[in-house]
Specification:
The complex is a heterodimer of chains A (355) and B (277). Chain A folds into 2 domains: 3-236, Rossmann fold; 241-354, Nucleic acid-binding proteins (OB fold (Dihydrolipoamide Acetyltransferase, E2P), Beta Barrel). Chain A has helices at 41-49, 91-100, 110-123, 139-152, 169-185, 197-203, 221-226, 231-236, 325-331, and strands spanning 3-12, 15-25, 30-34, 56-61, 64-65, 76-79, 157-161, 189-194, 206-211, 214-219, 241-248, 251-254, 257-260, 268-276, 281-284, 292-300, 305-312, 318-324, 338-343, 347-350, 353-354. In chain A, a hairpin with a 4-residue loop joins β16 (292-300) and β17. Chain A is built from 9 helices and 21 strands. Chain B has helices spanning 12-41, 45-54, 56-89, 95-107, 110-121, 128-133, 142-152, 155-168, 171-178, 183-212, 215-221, 231-240, 244-276. Chain B is globular. The two termini of chain B are 31 Å apart. The chains are: A alpha+beta (355), B mainly alpha (277). The A-B interface holds A 49-51, 70-72, 75-78, 80, 82, 84-88, 97-98, 101-102, 146, 149-150, 152-153 and B 171-172, 174-182, 185, 189-190, 193-194. Chain A: GO terms for molecular function: ABC-type sulfate transporter activity; ATP binding; ATP hydrolysis activity. Chain A: It comes from Kurthia zopfii. Chain A: Its EC number is 3.6.3.25.
Chain lengths: 355, 277
């Protein structure tokens, strides 16, 4: 089922939670709503679910306006951050709940319900825990029960509110791969909320980046990462180094060095910011032209990529550099050493002039 | 380290003084009176005891008390659930006013609570003439006793449930709705099991107070023997007539009821702790 939001507005008292949200989700897509806390992503999800009302705007499921439908009537599956399992019911009873509360006419037979529960338990790999109570399960297991419970009613839309937010890193990663696979096997239109960039980039078909109740950018993980539409998106998706300075005739003047920025020849701004990812910084032990001198203050050498923290001598600003492990070994950089830095790539956001 | 003392731990001497004071206080003000009730009740032997609690007036008082319990406890339970539901699930104008009103009976002296009903429904009261003309008797009759008790015991169930339901939040209810359950199904299958121990606790407290309510009932009942005397009123009448053994016999009956209530209450508290762990 496709979902169409247009011009959704929501206030909580004086707080403007959602501003002019328009979004089209295609059938079978897996969408991430990504943003810092307070950006309105959970409110938006709850409005789609029918758990929250909206002030104005429209929501269509396929071509049906669902605004007048309650959560009960929208045929959605909702997974809560803190699971919201029914603690007085066993795992199997939790999963069967959505089928058991149906009216007699639509209710599957007892045997059909049992079969469905068994099937779902197998899907979430919890067959052996059917008779346990939620309090006897680990966080990851609880979240899988919550997913099975939501899937039991065969929803047309699956909505997940920070589904892995309360889990530890390892379990999180496993579950997120599992969700990706599940979505490949059963392509239900799904929207999940997260504040974890990595999670969104890793799992989603498309990412909706939200900030202060507005949508900043919508795009595939590659699009939003490679071509961020705003400084906020650039900052929010991954680490970034800032170079404040004056942009004049295609040259950014920053501290001790000036940097050629092809494509910005026509622009002149007194104060602007250049953005460079840590892996787009060139690092050298020999002085080469157009570089800036920095001191190595910290080395984090674990993994395939080595993270270096530097302190610029000219402006005393902090810089982050990421280089491959092998390159790091060849360079033989040690803490406290002086190195020379130059951005390989830089992005400048000029109003109505984004390249 | 053997001599290590946690910062929150008191020295032995302080511990003994505190324990000693509590034990002394409890013995003096709780255990001693309890002992006196039972010794006085059985002072003149089992036969007298039996006679005191099985004569027609005593039986009428017991029966009246039980009738009041049967009417008031369910009504206040219902009201408690509804008001707690309202307050914990919705935000609306006048919510604080409602909370204050629920607390009002705790703040007002029971005697005044009784007087309110006399002023409303008594012969000289606001609706007095109208009621007299239509042969409706509220004051000095069962309806008055029920009304006064109802008023005094309003807060018990509601006060127990409101903080509980507020703390529990409503994500389970939302989950239930999203799975297609109706409001009533959600209440029966999800909310009620979540609040059942708190609810039972509130009902027990309410029940204890209904049985024991004296002030408000005393004002509206008229102390008609064998007719409008509840157990506490019956005890007072007997006591005023110097029938100490009989008074204490009925009192011992109420004490046993109270002790049972406390035991059940503690069982529930223990049970609740276990389920929330």
């Amino acid at each position: 089922m496709s979902i169409q939001l247009s011009k959704v507005e929501k206030h909580f008292g004086n707080y403007h939670a959602l501003r002019d949200i328009s979004l089209a989700v295609e059938a079978g897509e897996l969408i991430a709503l990504l943003g810092p806390s307070g950006s309105g992503k959970t409110s938006l999800l709850r409005i789609i679910a029918g758990l929250e009302s909206l002030d104005s705007g429209e929501i269509l499921f396929d071509d049906t306006n669902v605004l007048t439908l309650s959560a009960k009537q929208r045929n959605i599956g909702f997974v809560f951050q803190h699971y919201a399992l029914f603690n007085h019911m066993t795992v199997a009873e939790n999963i069967a709940y959505g089928l058991k509360v149906r009216t007699r006419k639509n209710r599957p037979s007892k045997q059909q319900i049992e079969e469905k529960v068994a099937e779902l338990l197998q899907l979430v790999k919890l067959d052996h825990l059917a008779t346990r109570y939620p309090t006897q399960l680990s966080g990851g297991q609880r979240q899988r029960v919550a997913l099975a419970r939501a899937l039991a009613v065969e929803p047309k839309v699956l909505l997940l509110d920070e589904p892995f937010g309360a889990l530890d890193a390892k379990v999180r990663k496993d579950l997120r791969r599992w969700l990706r696979n599940l979505h490949n096997d059963f392509p239900i239109t799904s929207i999940f909320v997260t504040h974890d960039q990595e999670e969104a980039l890793d799992v989603a078909d498309r990412i909706v980046i939200m900030n202060e109740g507005k949508i900043e950018q919508i795009g595939t993980p590659t699009e939003v990462y490679e071509h961020p539409a705003s400084p906020f998106v650039y900052n929010f998706l991954g680490n970034v180094n800032l170079f404040k300075g004056r942009l004049h005739q295609g040259t950014l003047q920053n501290g001790d060095f000036s940097l050629q920025l092809p494509g910005y020849e026509e622009v002149q701004i007194e104060e602007t910011v250049g953005y460079t990812r840590p892996h787009d910084l060139l690092i050298s032990k020999q002085k080469i032209p157009d570089t800036v001198t920095a001191l190595v203050t910290h080395i984090h050498p674990i993994g395939a990529v080595v993270h270096l923290e530097l302190n610029r001598i000219d402006t005393n600003e902090f810089l982050e550099v990421e280089i491959p492990q092998e390159y790091f070994r060849n360079l033989e950089i040690t803490k406290g050493e002086t190195v020379y830095i130059k951005p390989k790539q830089m992005k400048v956001f000029v109003e109505d002039y984004v390249i | 380290m053997k001599n290590f003392k946690k910062p929150t731990e008191e020295s032995k001497a302080v511990q003994y003084v505190l324990i000693g004071t509590s034990v002394l206080f409890l013995s003096l003000f709780l255990l001693l009176p309890l002992a006196i009730i039972f010794t006085t009740a059985f002072q003149k032997g089992l036969d007298t005891y039996w006679a005191s609690i099985s004569n027609s007036e005593a039986l009428a008082a017991i029966k009246l008390t039980l009738i009041v319990v049967a009417i008031v406890v369910p009504l206040n339970t219902l009201f408690g659930i509804i008001s707690a539901w309202l307050i914990s699930k919705y935000s609306f104008k006048g919510k604080n006013l409602l909370l204050t009103l629920i607390d009002l009976p705790f703040a007002v002296s029971p005697v005044i609570s009784g007087l309110i009903f006399v002023l409303l429904f008594g012969a000289q009261g606001l609706f007095g003439t109208y009621l007299l003309e239509h042969d409706v008797y509220i004051i000095f009759a069962l309806p008055g006793i029920v009304l006064a008790t109802l008023f005094v015991t309003v807060p018990f169930v509601a006060r127990e449930l409101i903080p509980l339901m507020q703390a529990q939040g409503q994500s389970e209810e939302e989950a239930s709705h999203s799975l297609g359950a109706s409001g009533l199904q959600t209440f029966i299958h999800i909310t009620l099991p979540k609040i059942k121990w708190g609810l039972l606790y509130g009902v027990i407290l309410c029940n204890a107070r209904v049985i024991g309510e004296f002030g408000a009932v005393s004002v509206v009942s008229g102390h008609i023997r064998g007719l409008t005397n509840t157990m506490p009123l019956h005890i007072e009448v007997l006591y005023n007539e110097y029938q100490f053994t009989a008074a204490f016999a009925v009192a011992s009956l109420m004490t046993i009821l109270a002790l049972f209530t406390i035991i059940i209450k503690n069982l529930i508290q223990w049970r609740t702790k276990e389920t929330t762990l």
